């Protein structure tokens, strides 16, 4: 049964008087102008208007109608401290999850960077090896070319020495270009001017010479005995044998140029190596400038000029002017076939029958009909 609860009543509390507390003056704009302090008064316990709640003693009543037994307290499930801490971890995990995707991405980037660096290193090593191989190949090629060039120079010098050392036409004919065509010319030439052996002192200059598209030629300036110098052209064959161009060495002419100009043999054609330049000299049979083109002809070592004429509208004059234009209008070296007709009144005029070659050197064998 429930116990009887006593009635709660209000009663006046009779306390002893409170001692006065020292007054602390608070100054402000308002209180700063006061001359006397303001005291706070404390009401006494005699006031009827100060009620106090009167609570009965605990022994006089019970706050519960039923107090739980000890068995209830024992049966209650006590909290597991491990589970409690585990709950803390799970709550923390749920609230702040670790961004594993970023770690994967960073790992992939680092792996890619490492692979790229490795590939660059391998590529650099491969490029370096390739450059080393190319450099070695170039060095071998350059060494081989230098060796071949040195051997070629030795062969050229040996042939030049061999040519000038001999005074025999047959011996010299073995060292010249186009021997089948040139040997008869050599025999006729050395009949008039016998060959003389001249030891080679040294080669002053030796350089490649490009003629048209042919790069197998070399030009040499050599010093012979008694301070004689000669310029000669050497043709290196596909087999590597150096051959001397004999015609340009002696500037071969079918007859002496001054003798031809003065004696004026008629009804015979001659292939002369001459210097050619345009002229305006017209006389006798060649007085009509509208019909004839005039050219002044001279030869190496010659003193007397001749004037050659070709039809204005003919192919010969056109070909000669083309060669002059290539030389900016200056004189050019040509092989011309010229003749003096029977009964010609002009004392210095000759007829140009053909432009045989555009230089004094035959690069290829001339036509049989030339």
Describe the protein.
The model has no long low-confidence stretch (mean pLDDT 79). The protein has 370 residues and is of the alpha+beta class. The strands form 3 sheets. The protein has a 5-stranded mixed beta barrel with strand order 7-8-9-11-10. The protein has a 4-stranded antiparallel sheet with strand order 3-4-5-6. It has a two-stranded antiparallel sheet with strand order 1-2. It has 8 helices and 11 strands. It has helices spanning 70-75, 81-95, 100-165, 169-173, 179-192, 246-250, 257-263, 315-326, and strands at 10-12, 51-53, 200-211, 214-224, 229-236, 242-244, 269-279, 292-298, 306-311, 332-339, 349-357.
What would the keywords be for this entry?
single chain; 370 residues; alpha+beta; 5-stranded mixed beta barrel; 4-stranded antiparallel sheet; 8 helices; 35% helix; 22% strand; elongated
Give a short overview:
By secondary structure, the chain is an alpha+beta fold. The chain has helices at 70-75, 81-95, 100-165, 169-173, 179-192, 246-250, 257-263, 315-326; strands at residues 10-12, 51-53, 200-211, 214-224, 229-236, 242-244, 269-279, 292-298, 306-311, 332-339, 349-357.
């Amino acid at each position: 049964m429930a116990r009887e609860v006593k009635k709660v009543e209000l009663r006046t509390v009779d306390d002893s008087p409170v001692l006065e507390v020292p007054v602390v003056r608070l100054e402000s704009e308002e209180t700063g102008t006061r001359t006397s302090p303001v005291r706070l008064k404390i009401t006494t316990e005699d006031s009827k208007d100060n009620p106090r709640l009167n609570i009965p003693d605990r022994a006089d009543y019970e706050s519960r109608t039923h107090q739980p037994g000890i068995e209830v307290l024992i049966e209650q499930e006590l909290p597991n401290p491990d589970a409690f801490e585990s709950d803390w971890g799970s709550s923390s995990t749920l609230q702040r999850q670790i961004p594993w995707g970023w770690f994967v991405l960073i790992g992939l980037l680092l792996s890619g960077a490492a692979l790229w660096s490795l590939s660059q290193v391998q590529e650099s090593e491969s490029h370096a090896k390739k450059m080393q191989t190319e450099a070695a190949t170039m060095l071998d090629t350059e060494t081989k070319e230098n060796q071949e060039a040195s051997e070629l120079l030795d062969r050229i010098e040996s042939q030049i020495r061999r040519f000038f050392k001999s005074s025999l036409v047959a011996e010299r004919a073995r060292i010249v270009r186009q021997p089948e065509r040139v040997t008869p010319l050599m025999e006729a030439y050395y009949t008039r001017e016998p060959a003389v052996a001249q030891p080679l002192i040294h080669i002053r200059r030796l350089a490649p010479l490009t003629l048209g598209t042919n790069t197998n030629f070399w030009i040499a300036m050599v010093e012979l005995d008694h301070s004689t110098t000669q310029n000669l052209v050497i043709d290196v064959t596909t087999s590597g044998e150096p051959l001397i161009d004999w015609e340009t060495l002696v500037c071969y002419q079918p007859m002496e140029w001054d003798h031809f100009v003065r004696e004026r043999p008629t009804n015979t054609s001659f292939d002369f190596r001459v210097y050619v330049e345009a002229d305006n000299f017209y006389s006798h049979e060649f007085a009509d400038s509208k019909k004839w083109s005039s050219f002044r002809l001279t030869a190496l070592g010659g003193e007397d000029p001749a004037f050659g004429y070709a039809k204005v509208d003919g192919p010969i004059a056109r070909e000669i002017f083309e060669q002059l234009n290539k030389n900016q209008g200056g004189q050019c070296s040509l092989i011309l076939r010229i003749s003096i007709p029977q009964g010609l009144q002009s004392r210095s005029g000759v007829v140009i029958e053909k432009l045989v070659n555009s230089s004094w050197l035959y690069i290829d064998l001339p036509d049989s009909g030339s």
